[in-house]
Specification:
By secondary structure, the protein is α+β, with helices and mostly antiparallel strands. It is about 40% helix and about 15% strand. The protein contains 4 helices and 7 strands; from the N terminus they run ββββαβααβαβ. The strands form 3 sheets. It has a 3-stranded antiparallel β-sheet with strand order 2-3-4. A two-stranded antiparallel sheet has the order 1-5. Strands 6-7 form a two-stranded parallel ribbon. Helix 1 crosses helix 2.
Length: about 150
Amino acid sequence: MSARKLKRFYDDVSVVPSGNGFEIQLDGKPLRSPEKNTLLLPNAFLGEAVAEEWRTQEKDISPPTMPFTKLAFTAADRVAPNRDAVIEQISAFANSDVICYRASEPDDLVKRQKESWDPILDWADMALGAAMKSGEGIGYVAQDYDA
């Protein structure tokens, strides 16, 4: 969204099922990103979060108050057209993600790391099929490419 002031130009904001996702509509017309892409959000919950940002705008639209919209626009304009490159960039960090490198002491830190980070690794394994390995210290932990 541009830095110039944009007046609120719509009355109604709705979330409408569309294809494999949910579309935001302003006065019955699809919300478009700065690059003119129609936003297609993956679920109704995220659709409602974006829609609520648009509903709460008053006389002027204030982009700093719309973090979900900003992320959705970025996904539509920057990530979707470059999906393979983005996947490669993200994958490059998997081998050095801090949650895979654990302290061996002191005991309270070891416990906090386990309590904080194991649920994330468990979720990634269950939800994404991405079984990440972890180890103690700073020694390299090779991850399976598929993960």
